C-alpha cells in the first residue's frame, strides 16, 4: 500500500498525542476507558472547521457529539434521535447545545436552487426553515447579512425542534435537569454567540407541542 505524506502524518500525530497525554498523566487513557459521564451533548455541523471540543476547551470525555450538515434536528432522523436518547436517558447530560456557524455551506445551499446531489433531500429541511421566515429574510437586502441571519434563525428553529421531541419532554416531565441552548460559531474570530434561545421546560412551547405522559 502506498502511504501518502498526509496519511503518514496523521498516524504520527496520533503517536505524539498519546505520548504527550501520558507524559502529563500516566493513567490518562486508563481513566477514559473506565467510562464516560459528559455533562453536555453537542449537536453541530459536520464542517471540518468547527471542532466541538476545541472550541470550548473541553477534554475527551466531557462532550458527547452529534454532527450533520447544518446542525439539523430532524424529527425522523433516527441517528440524531438515537444519540439524543442515549445522551439524555443513559448519560444524563444536563445541557444540549445546537451550534451552527457563520459561512455554513448547507445553509448557503438552501438559499439557492443549484442541485448538488443526494444532499438536496437533506437541504430541503433547511429550505423549510427559510419558508417559515421568508418575510424577515427577504427584507434584508445585503446578501451576507441575510445569510448570517438565516444561520441564526436555523439554529433557533433546531433548538425549538429539539424541545418538541418526546425524549426531551419526557425528561422534563420526570424532573430531570436538562437545558437546551442555541449558539453560533464565528469562523473569522473563533467566538461563539449565545443566541438567547434557551429552554429548560416545555412551558415556552406552544400548547400543541406539549406532550402529555
From TrEMBL:
<dbReference type="InterPro" id="IPR036874">
    <property type="entry name" value="Carbonic_anhydrase_sf"/>
</dbReference>
<dbReference type="InterPro" id="IPR001765">
    <property type="entry name" value="Carbonic_anhydrase"/>
</dbReference>
<feature type="binding site">
    <location>
        <position position="47"/>
    </location>
    <ligand>
        <name>Zn(2+)</name>
    </ligand>
</feature>
<feature type="binding site">
    <location>
        <position position="101"/>
    </location>
    <ligand>
        <name>Zn(2+)</name>
    </ligand>
</feature>
<protein>
    <recommendedName>
        <fullName>Carbonic anhydrase 2</fullName>
        <ecNumber>4.2.1.1</ecNumber>
    </recommendedName>
</protein>
<keyword id="KW-0479">Metal-binding</keyword>
<dbReference type="GO" id="GO:0015976">
    <property type="term" value="P:carbon utilization"/>
</dbReference>
<comment type="similarity">
    <text>Belongs to the beta-class carbonic anhydrase family.</text>
</comment>
<dbReference type="InterPro" id="IPR015892">
    <property type="entry name" value="Carbonic_anhydrase_CS"/>
</dbReference>
<dbReference type="GO" id="GO:0004089">
    <property type="term" value="F:carbonate dehydratase activity"/>
</dbReference>
<dbReference type="GO" id="GO:0008270">
    <property type="term" value="F:zinc ion binding"/>
</dbReference>
<dbReference type="Pfam" id="PF00484">
    <property type="entry name" value="Pro_CA"/>
</dbReference>
<keyword id="KW-0456">Lyase</keyword>
<feature type="binding site">
    <location>
        <position position="45"/>
    </location>
    <ligand>
        <name>Zn(2+)</name>
    </ligand>
</feature>
<keyword id="KW-0862">Zinc</keyword>
<feature type="binding site">
    <location>
        <position position="104"/>
    </location>
    <ligand>
        <name>Zn(2+)</name>
    </ligand>
</feature>
Amino acid at each position: 500500500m502506498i502511504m501518502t505524506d498526509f496519511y503518514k502524518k496523521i498516524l504520527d500525530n496520533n503517536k505524539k498525542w498519546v505520548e504527550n497525554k501520558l507524559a502529563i498523566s500516566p493513567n490518562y487513557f486508563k481513566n477514559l476507558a473506565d467510562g464516560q459521564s459528559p455533562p453536555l451533548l453537542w449537536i453541530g455541523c459536520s464542517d471540518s472547521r468547527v471542532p466541538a471540543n476545541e472550541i470550548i476547551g473541553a477534554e475527551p470525555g466531557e462532550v458527547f457529539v452529534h454532527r450533520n450538515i447544518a446542525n439539523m434536528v430532524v424529527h425522523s432522523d433516527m441517528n440524531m434521535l438515537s444519540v439524543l436518547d442515549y445522551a439524555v436517558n443513559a448519560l444524563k447530560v444536563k445541557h444540549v447545545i445546537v451550534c451552527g456557524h457563520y459561512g455554513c455551506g448547507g445553509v448557503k445551499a438552501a438559499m439557492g436552487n443549484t442541485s448538488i446531489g443526494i444532499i438536496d433531500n437533506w437541504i430541503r429541511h433547511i429550505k423549510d426553515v427559510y419558508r417559515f421566515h421568508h418575510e424577515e429574510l427577504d427584507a434584508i437586502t445585503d446578501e451576507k447579512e441575510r445569510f448570517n441571519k438565516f444561520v441564526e434563525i436555523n439554529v433557533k428553529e433546531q433548538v425549538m425542534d429539539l424541545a418538541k421531541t418526546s425524549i426531551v419532554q419526557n425528561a422534563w416531565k420526570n424532573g430531570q435537569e436538562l437545558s437546551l441552548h442555541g449558539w453560533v460559531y464565528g469562523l473569522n474570530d473563533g467566538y461563539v454567540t449565545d443566541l438567547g434561545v434557551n429552554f429548560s421546560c416545555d412551558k415556552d412551547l406552544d400548547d400543541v407541542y406539549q406532550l402529555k405522559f
